[in-house]
Design goal:
Helices cover 12% and strands 48% of the residues. With 141 residues, it is mainly beta. The protein has one domain: Immunoglobulin-like, CATH 2.60.40.1120. The strands form two sheets. Strands 1, 2, 5, 6, 10 and 11 form a six-stranded mixed sheet that branches.
């Protein structure tokens, strides 16, 4: 009995340290740029696809960087990626939540729909930890 415990206990502890619990979440971090410039603020989501299973995961993009810890991580394997970010146009428009005549900065989506609601962007997330960078070219509007 003691011999079996001596063999099983280290293997169990080793597996636990590596995260062998059957959870396929991965820590993911990286940079997000548009036309070579870091995205000031936005959001990124990884959604399992192509037979991959698990929960989706997301993070805030700040100064061009994002980080998703393993505890809330992306499913290892193929994931559809959604990117969202806004920029100010320099114009003032009616504040949709304000009183009539209240103005707010006009903000427009930086990424076209093929990078968010109808995303065609797919990345393979490596098991454990992965760095995935994006530099998306968007034509001027």
């Amino acid at each position: 009995m003691f011999r079996r415990l001596v063999v099983i206990l280290p293997a169990t502890l080793f597996c636990a340290a590596l995260g062998c619990s059957g959870d396929n979440r991965s820590e993911v971090s990286g940079t997000v740029k548009v036309n070579g410039q870091p995205v000031a603020e936005g959001a990124i989501n990884f959604i399992p696809t192509a037979g991959n299973t698990g929960a989706g995961a997301g993070a805030v993009i700040t100064n061009g960087k994002y980080h998703i810890p393993r505890s809330a991580g992306a499913a290892a394997g193929k994931n559809r990626v959604e990117l969202r970010a806004f920029k100010n146009t320099g114009r003032k428009v009616q504040d949709p939540t304000g009183a009539p005549g209240a103005l707010a900065d006009e903000r427009v989506m930086i990424f076209p729909p093929e990078y968010n609601d109808r995303s065609t962007l797919v990345r393979d997330v490596k098991s454990g930890s992965d760095t995935i960078d994006f530099d998306i070219t968007v034509p001027a509007r």
